[in-house]
Design brief:
Layout (H helix, E strand, L loop, with lengths): L1 E6 L5 E10 L2 E12 L2 H11 L6 E2 L2 E3 L5 H4 L2 H7 E2 L5 E5 L13 H10 L3 E6 L6 E3 L8 E3 L3 E3 L7 E6 L5 H4 L1 H9 L10 H11 L19 E6 L6 E6 L4 E4 L4 E3 L8 H13 L5 E5 L19 E7 L11 H5 L6 E5 L7 E6 L1
Parallel strand pairs: 3-5, 4-6, 5-7, 7-8, 8-10, 9-11, 16-17, 17-18, 18-19
Antiparallel strand pairs: 1-2, 1-20, 2-3, 11-12, 12-13, 13-16, 14-15, 14-20
């Protein structure tokens, strides 16, 4: 099998894809976020990656959180690709479909995903470690973070692990969780007018979630660990034209969304969790929150547990103190891949097993 991972040049945003190919044909497509601070950036990239109405099927769509620079390209994506009842959508929050009543763009996106029949699965904080074959996700509405998701052997020996660091997300929405569970509605029929009416009455009576307080549903980013279930990797090479990079690295990748690593212990604990899954070293690590100093710790640049880091940012901020990571990684190992809106900054990671 061959996996082609791409870090797309959308500037201040996030759009990452993985395509697994067998015998020259794509048999599994994974997408993590699809958005940009300037939506034109992500639409331009979509026109290059997916031809309009190409019909390429999305198997696993992961949404880290609901800020516009992570989701505002998804509706354009859905107009180019096929999603249906065999598509799994992973989102943070135990009952993500309930956010269809939110005063937020995620509501219209959820409505569209439900219209297409996708299977939306919530990810919630947990201390356990469960295992699922990909097909088993269609039998549940929520899974604990830390669960390993194995692709079928017919596709390839590959694993995805949703991870979350509890930053208060669950505590903010605890009352919402509880009231949803107490409602006399079928969660699978949550798009019905009656169910929406019940949900709105609950949502509008939770002061922490209304009055434009978007933060309440964005407090916890869903991270994804992607790695092979084998050490027999024939080739794993990352290429970036702008930096003239062509280098062999480990095949694993950790997508981090807007998770905060400002606390050094949080970052260290996360790496220990990653290694506990059998990844001796990470290949690629996403610097969270577009390199913002609010979520970054300079100790990350001194860590030898990953081969390369990458950051999506707008080049207009490159001299700003909000991007300390650009200075910290300068001319040192591990390397930093800078992904802006320049097409030449696109990163392609080709893995052959």
């Amino acid at each position: 099998m061959q996996l082609i991972r791409e870090l797309h040049p959308v500037g201040h945003g996030a759009f990452f894809t993985e395509r697994i190919r067998n015998e020259g044909k794509t048999c599994f497509t994974f997408i993590y976020d699809c958005g940009s601070y300037k939506v034109d950036n992500v639409v331009r990239v979509l026109n290059q990656v997916f031809q309009p109405y190409s019909g390429e099927h999305i198997d696993l769509l992961c949404i880290s959180h609901f800020d516009k620079d992570h989701i505002n390209g998804l509706i354009s994506l859905l107009s180019r690709c096929k999603v249906d009842s065999s598509t799994v959508v992973l989102m943070p929050f135990k009952y993500p479909k309930a956010l269809v009543v939110a005063d937020h763009p995620i509501a219209s996106l959820l409505s569209l995903l439900m219209f297409y029949g996708t299977h939306i699965v919530g990810v919630y904080n947990s201390t356990g470690r469960e295992e699922f074959v990909f097909g088993q996700l269609f039998q549940t509405d929520a899974i604990p973070e830390g669960a390993r998701i194995f692709l079928p052997a017919s596709i390839g020996r590959w694993v995805y692990v949703p991870l979350m660091h509890d930053e208060g997300f669950e505590s903010v929405l605890e009352e919402f969780n509880r009231k949803i569970e107490n409602l006399d509605i079928d969660y699978n029929q949550i798009g019905s007018p009656a169910a929406i009416g019940h949900l709105k009455s609950v949502y509008q009576n939770l002061p922490s979630l209304v009055h434009g307080n978007v933060t309440a549903i964005n407090m916890n980013s869903l991270m994804i660990l992607s790695y092979p279930l084998t050490n027999k990797v024939e080739k794993s090479v990352v290429v970036q034209k702008s930096s003239s990079l062509c280098q062999s690295i480990q095949p694993s990748c950790l997508y981090t969304g807007d998770t905060s690593f400002q606390n050094q212990q949080v970052f260290s604990d996360l790496l220990q969790r990653v290694f506990s899954y059998g990844c001796s070293q990470l290949g690629l690590l996403q610097i969270p929150h577009h390199g913002s100093n609010h979520c970054y710790n300079s100790s990350i640049a001194q860590c030898s547990s990953f081969s390369a880091a990458f950051v999506n940012y707008d080049s207009m901020y490159k001299n700003s103190n909000r991007l300390a990571c650009l200075h910290d990684f300068n001319n040192r190992y591990p390397i930093l891949l800078r992904v802006t809106k320049d097409i030449n900054t696109r990163v392609v990671h080709k893995i052959t097993i």
